[in-house]
Design a protein that fits this description.
The chain is of the alpha+beta class and 252 residues long. The protein contains 7 helices and 8 strands; from the N terminus they run H-H-E-E-H-E-H-E-H-E-E-H-E-H-E. Helices cover 33% and strands 21% of the residues. Bound molecules: flavin mononucleotide.
């Protein structure tokens, strides 16, 4: 499977919430495990760990989606760690979808104390996966409920890069991203939330930003451009109204 395969599913994928609870074949799990070992970070200086667990190792609550497998993501808590996890796990979301396996980011469920204690790193988020008991793909772009491009960017002529960003999944489908700049240097911003909302959404929004940045990275790769991520003081000091700075994307 290559970047073209992953990029193709950006235009079809959807969150899967109904699963066949039969565990995946060992050979399939081995392939998924190998892919997870190869996940590319946005910031390689941040320590992360991934653990596969079963249904009984994720706390039961009314909102929990029952799936045969869950990936639990842990990370060192340092600047950019939530965005880094978003960037990494979105690779798995697309890989699973491309392999015909359903998945769903899970911002609410938490793994058991034992699972959380099994890593010295901070628990960040869970992703459920397994064979879907509902259609795996959307039939057309129109089935995505998303903001139009001009609400997520004021750039001109970058539709090929930003359409995959527009279609990215986000917690409660909030689509917190905004991009400014041009084809050489793009700046990524995240919406500011009020105090009450921030308690719940601030962390998830930063995970969402990593998901969007992975879709952007993938679109650039497929178009034959490589992009690098960094910090830009001027862009940081001048966010659009209602947004704060995450990072900049340099083409080169
Ligand atoms: C960080 C994050 C957390 C999420 N948490 C949940 C969750 O707890 N429960 C759920 O059913 N869906 C969850 N989702 C799925 C979103 O609701 C979904 O991605 C969004 O509505 C867009 O739909 P789509 O993924 O089908 O395109 C989450 C998505 C993200 C990115």
């Amino acid at each position: 499977m290559d970047n073209n395969d992953l990029h193709s599913v950006v235009f079809q994928r959807k969150s899967i919430r109904k699963y066949d609870l039969t565990p995946l074949a060992d050979s399939t799990m081995a392939e998924i495990t190998e892919f997870v070992r190869s996940l590319q970070p946005l910031d390689a200086t941040i320590k992360t760990a991934m653990k596969f667990v079963s249904q009984t190792e994720v706390h039961h609550n009314l909102l929990r989606i029952k799936a045969p497998h869950y990936l639990v993501a842990f990370s060192e808590n340092k600047a950019g760690y939530l965005t880094n996890i978003g960037f990494m796990l979105q690779q798995l979301d697309l890989f699973l979808s491309a392999k015909g396996i359903g998945s769903c980011w899970q911002g609410i469920p938490r793994p058991t104390n034992e699972v959380r204690a099994s890593s010295e790193l901070e628990f960040v988020i869970v992703m459920s996966f397994g064979m879907a008991k509902e259609p795996l793909y959307r039939n057309s772009i129109q089935e995505f409920k998303r903001k139009p491009l001009d609400k997520i960017s004021n750039t001109i002529g970058l539709d090929d890069l930003l359409e995959p960003v527009r279609l990215a999944p986000s917690a409660t489908n909030s689509q917190p991203w905004f991009f400014t700049g041009d084809h050489r240097l793009l700046h990524a911003y995240c919406v500011k939330t009020n105090f009450l909302k921030a308690l719940i959404y601030e962390k998830m929004n930063q995970v969402d930003m990593g998901i969007a940045l992975y879709h952007l990275w993938l679109a650039a790769q497929v178009a034959g451009n490589s992009v690098t991520f960094g910090q830009n003081d001027e862009a940081k000091a001048n966010p659009p109204d209602g947004y704060y700075y995450i990072c900049s994307v340099e083409s080169g």
